[in-house]
Design goal:
Largest sheet: 7 strands, mixed
Helix content: 25-40%
Bound molecules: cobalamin, iron/sulfur cluster
Strand order of the largest sheet: 2-1-3-4-5-6-7
CATH class of the largest domain: Alpha Beta
CATH architecture of the largest domain: Alpha-Beta Horseshoe
Number of helices: 20
Radius of gyration: 22 Å
Distance between the termini: 50 Å
Structural class: alpha/beta
C-alpha cells in the first residue's frame, strides 16, 4: 500500500521533518514498506509564487499514486493543511488522515474545515499503523483508539484516547526519506524524549504527552552518528520539552554523544540546571541553552503552575554561571497573562533587563491562547479579540513574511488563529497594555517583528510592496 506523509508548506526556512521520518520508520517496520515523505516546505522552492500553489502541491502528491495521504498539522500549518486536504477530497477518493498538535487539540475544527476522513489525536505511530491496516484490509475502522471522524450524520466521534507506547519500540527515523533536505542542514531538531513531567497551564501540547518517556541514549547517539557521517550535520537542537529532568539519563546521553564532537543546543527549565549538568552538557558539545522564565513575578510563575520555587536571584545566578561556563543563553519571557497586573509586567521587564545585562539573549512574547491550553477554559472571560500584528503586538504563529505572502489563506482562517486573541492583564485597558508592551520592548531593545525574515525575503517583500 502506497502511503504519502506530507509536511505542509509553512515556513521560509527548511526544517527537515525528523518527527515525520520517525513516524514513517514505524510504518515501514510494521509492514508499510512503500511509505514516503513529501516535504512541500522543501519541495516548493519559490514560496513567493502563491498562485496555483495548492494545485502544484496536489500534483506532487498524486504523481506518487498514494492509497492514503497523511498530513501533519500544527497551528501554523493549519490554513494550508485544511485547504490542501479539502482539495484532495474534492478531486480524489483517496483517504486523508491528519495528525499533529493542532489536529490533536482541535479535531472537530480540523475535521470540519479539512474534509479529511480521519484525525489522529496524540501519539501517531500505533494509531496510524492500525488505521492503515484497517483501510488496507477494508475492515471497520471506527473503533481504533485515538481516532476522530465525522459520523454519517455529521457528528464528531472522538474514539477513546490511545495509551502511550513503549518508547523503545520506536525504530531509528528513516532519514533517507528526507535525505535531500537533511544534507548539510543547519536546522535539524530532534527529540531524545517525549513529554514533560510538569503541567504548566500555558503550555500547548503537554496534555498529549502526559509524562516524560526517555529514549535509550545509545540509540540517540546512533541517530546522531548517521546524521553526521551520512548527511554532514555538524550542529543540531534537542527540542525535548524537558531534557534535563532526569540527571542520570542526561549524563548517560551526554557521555554517549560526546565522542561525536557535534555542537548543539537545548531547551531546559532553569531550576533543573546545576554545576554538574552544565559540565556534562558542555563536554558533550552543548553551547546554547534556552530557558522559559516566563515572568519576573514569582506570584505569576506560581499561578502559571510552573512549579518553580526559585527566586529571581537564583535565575540570575544560573544565567551568570552559564555565561561564565561558555554557553550562549536565551531567556524567554511572556506577558498578556490574565492574572498578572501592571506591576508584574514591570517585574518581568526588570528581570529580563538583568538577564540581558548578565549576557543572556532575551525574548518577550505574548501568551498565545492555543487550543487545548488549560488556561483557555479557566480564563475565557479575560480573552480579548485583537489582531496582534496590526496592533504592533508580537504575533506568535505567523511571522511578518508569512502574514504578507499567505494573507489569503490566513485571513480565511482568522477566526481560528490564536494570534487574533490575547488575555488582558488585570486592571489594564487594551490601549494601556499595547503601550506598556511597546515600552518594554523598546527599553529591552527587542524588535520581535524582525523575527525569521532573511535578507532575501526582506528584499523580495520590499520589491513586491513597491
Ligand atoms: C521542533 C519544533 C519546532 C521547529 C520545527 C522543526 C521541524 N522540523 O518542523 C521550529 C523551531 C522551527 C519551531 C517553530 C515554531 N514552533 Co515549534 N516545536 C517544535 C517542538 C519542540 C518539537 C516537535 C517534535 O519534533 N516533536 C516530537 C514529535 C514526536 O512529536 P510531534 O511532532 O507532535 O508528532 C507526533 C504527534 O503529534 C503525531 N503526528 C504528528 N504529525 C502527524 C501526522 C500524521 C498524519 C499522524 C497520523 C500523526 C502525526 O505523531 C507524532 C509521533 O507520535 C514542539 C514541541 C513538542 N514537544 O512537540 C514545538 C511545537 C510544535 N511548536 C510550537 C510553536 C508554537 C512554534 C512556533 C509558532 C513558535 C513561535 N513562537 O514562533 C514556531 C512556528 C514558526 C513559524 N511561524 O513558522 C507549538 C505548537 C502549538 C500548536 N498548538 O500548534 C509546539 C507544540 C510547542 C509548544 N509546546 O507550544 N518548532
Ligand atoms: S516545563 Fe516546559 S514543556 Fe513542561 S509543561 Fe512547562 S512549559 Fe511545557
Amino acid at each position: 500500500m502506497k502511503i504519502v506523509i506530507v509536511n505542509p508548506l509553512w515556513s521560509f526556512v527548511n526544517y527537515p521533518p525528523v518527527n515525520l521520518a520517525e513516524l514513517a520508520a514505524y510504518l515501514i517496520k510494521n509492514g508499510f514498506k512503500n511509505t514516503t515523505i513529501t516535504d512541500l516546505n522543501f519541495e516548493i522552492k519559490n514560496k513567493f509564487e502563491i498562485d496555483g500553489i495548492l494545485e502544484k502541491s496536489l500534483k506532487m502528491i498524486l504523481k506518487q499514486k498514494p492509497q492514503a495521504v497523511c498530513i501533519t498539522c500544527n497551528a501554523v500549518q493549519m490554513p494550508f493543511v485544511c485547504e490542501l486536504s479539502a482539495l484532495i477530497k474534492e478531486k480524489t477518493k483517496i483517504p486523508v488522515i491528519i495528525g499533529g498538535v493542532m489536529a490533536s487539540l482541535a479535531p472537530d475544527i480540523i475535521l470540519k474545515l479539512s474534509k479529511a476522513d480521519f484525525v489522529i489525536r496524540g501519539e501517531g505511530e500505533k494509531t496510524l499503523a492500525e488505521l492503515l491496516t484497517g483501510i488496507k484490509n477494508k475492515e471497520k475502522t471506527d473503533k481504533i483508539d485515538g481516532i476522530s471522524y465525522l459520523s454519517k450524520n455529521g457528528v464528531i466521534v472522538n474514539h477513546k484516547d490511545r495509551m502511550l507506547m513503549n518508547i523503545d519500540e520506536l525504530p531509528c527515523p528513516e532519514f533517507k526519506l528526507i535525505s535531500k533536505n537533511l544534507k548539510n542542514s543547519a536546522n535539524v531538531w530532534l527529540t531524545a524524549s517525549r513529554g514533560c513531567a510538569y503541567k504548566c497551564k500555558f503550555c500547548s501540547g503537554n496534555e498529549i504527552w502526559k509524562m516524560q518517556r526517555r529514549k535509550n541514549p545509545q540509540s540517540i547517539a546512533a541517530q546522531l552518528k548517521i546524521l553526521k557521517t551520512k548527511y554532514g550535520i555538524r550542529n543540531f537542537v534537542f527540542g525535548d520539552d524537558c531534557l534535563t529532568l532526569n540527571k542520570k539519563w542526561l549524563k548517560e546521553l551526554c557521555l554517549k554523544i560526546k565522542p561525536l564532537r557535534l555542537q548543539w543546543g537545548c531547551l531546559a527549565r532553569i531550576d533543573l540546571i546545576d554545576a554538574d549538568i552544565l559540565k556534562y552538557l558542555y563536554e558533550a558539545g552543548c553551547r546554547h541553552i534556552y530557558h522559559g522564565i516566563e515572568s519576573g513575578s514569582a506570584k505569576v510563575r506560581q499561578g502559571l503552575d510552573k512549579k518553580m520555587a526559585k527566586t529571581n536571584e537564583f535565575i540570575l545566578d544560573v544565567v551568570k554561571k552559564e555565561i561564565a561556563a561558555g554557553f550562549e543563553t536565551t531567556c524567554s519571557f511572556m506577558t498578556g497573562i490574565p492574572f498578572e497586573n501592571e506591576s508584574d509586567m514591570i517585574k518581568t521587564a526588570e528581570l529580563a533587563g538583568l538577564t540581558k545585562k548578565a549576557g543572556s539573549r532575551i525574548q518577550l512574547w505574548l501568551l498565545t491562547p492555543y487550543y487545548g491550553l488549560k488556561m483557555l477554559s479557566e480564563y475565557k472571560n479575560r480573552l480579548v479579540k485583537i489582531e496582534r500584528q496590526p496592533a504592533g503586538l508580537q504575533a506568535d504563529v505567523f511571522d511578518r513574511g508569512q502574514m504578507f505572502l499567505y494573507s489569503a489563506f490566513i485571513k480565511k482562517y482568522s477566526k481560528y488563529n490564536p494570534d487574533n486573541f490575547m488575555f488582558l492583564p488585570q486592571g489594564m485597558t487594551e490601549s494601556g497594555f499595547v503601550k506598556l508592551f511597546a515600552k518594554m520592548r523598546s527599553d529591552l531593545n527587542i524588535d520581535v517583528n524582525k523575527k525569521q525574515l532573511t535578507a532575501k525575503e526582506i528584499f523580495i517583500l520590499k520589491n513586491i510592496k513597491q
